[in-house]
Fold this sequence. Notes:
The structure holds two protein chains of two kinds.
Chain A lengths: L3 H11 L1 H8 L9 H12 L5 H5 L15 H11 L4 H18 L30 H7 L3 H20 L7
Chain B lengths: L6 H20 L8 H20 L3 H11 L11
Helix pairs in contact in B: 1-2
Amino acid sequence: MQVGHVALAASIASFAPQITEAAGVPRVEALSVESLVVVFLAHYLPNFDVIPIKLGWAPDRFHCSYSHTLLFTALVGLALWPVNASWAVLSVVSLLLHFVADSGSSVGLPLLLPFSKKRFSLYLWADTGHSGWFAFKSTYQQAWTWITEGGMFVVLAARFYQLRVWPFS
Amino acid sequence: MFEYRRTPYLGLVYAAVIGSAVVWLLEMTHRPLTVVQAAIFYVLSYLPGLGLAMLSDPAAHRAKAQYLQVDFYAPREDT
Lengths: 169, 79
């Protein structure tokens, strides 16, 4: 998933009150600056693995490896918990939903690293690289990327309507 | 991107169905959608609608099959 991550992250932020209340941590308002910053940072955190690749410090195969694991999610949650429990909960949810969004990609997610190298994938679309114009263009030549990512924008619009956010205010 | 000329138009049909379903399920009786707001849902519904239409287009299947044969993460020779 590429552009769809934006809609998914914003949708998660729109559910911040429900998520935090269900977890029993201090409530965070829907689409508040706090929810948006925490959710977007956490949601995009796994894809920051492209930075060391771009800098030449890691091979291309480093993408979708340790940053896309349940262990990484747990570490982020545990690191944030003493700082702000609500941020920890929102981050864990954002990370897990990032993995769900990426699960259609053929590259697969090694969710159980370092305990297992098995990669989980629904093979809905072929992965064509971690960045660049070709990866972007070729992703949108495939049907399921439109279905999943476009669907996320419909969900986000629905949330805007329910929360009376412009243009549904 | 499309082999069939009908694919983008078929996407419009799917978008109408998706948009109608979303509006029907979502719209609150005490807060009806304006024409512009409903139009936003129909326009956005074209995105997944186009994807559904592409499921029956050979070009999309060919692209996926072609890309699945390539390892885009294989070590490059210049590194």
